[in-house]
Write the structure tokens for this entry.
Amino acid sequence: MQTRLMTLALAALLAAPVFAQQSQPSPQPNAAPKEGSVNDRRTDQQDRIANGVQSGQLTAGETRNLEGREANLNREVRSDRQANGGRLTAQERQQVNRQQNNVSHSIYRDKHNAAQAHYGNNEVGQRRENQQDRIANGIRNGSMTAGQTARTENREQGINRQVHADRAANGGRLTGQQRRQINRRQNRTSRQIYHQKHS
């Protein structure tokens, strides 16, 4: 009987740290950023850009420009935080806020100007639209950084220019050779999108 009581007491003592560890709240690594914070605004602006890409309100060139500015701002914030032990000073926050306001106004202007992304009802156009949707999803879920998006949209803009020039030279149509060349470029961009979203 005494041995059994000692065994139960020993088991209780050994189990106590396990229960204590389990009862503590676990940290939430992916907690939402504080409303109005630098990270919250960055997330909101990326969502607005993604919506503009998906709806066709933002062209590849406009998206490239916006995402290039976002990437520069992200680098500046990261550098300022590293210099200040992980925090931004009040002055740095004000400066970042002004820059975010400028980008926000640009997003609005670009989404409401006359420039629209037109893909066409053909194989080349459908692939361009599909790739823009994949980019929009990468922006929205954070699997593509602003810098990656800017580089990808630069490629998309180049493809769009080639399609436009080739069609203008051939009475609005693409030759078989031109379609194959554009398809190869679209394949390269498609692989780039995949690698960026999965790296």
Notes: The radius of gyration is 25 Å.
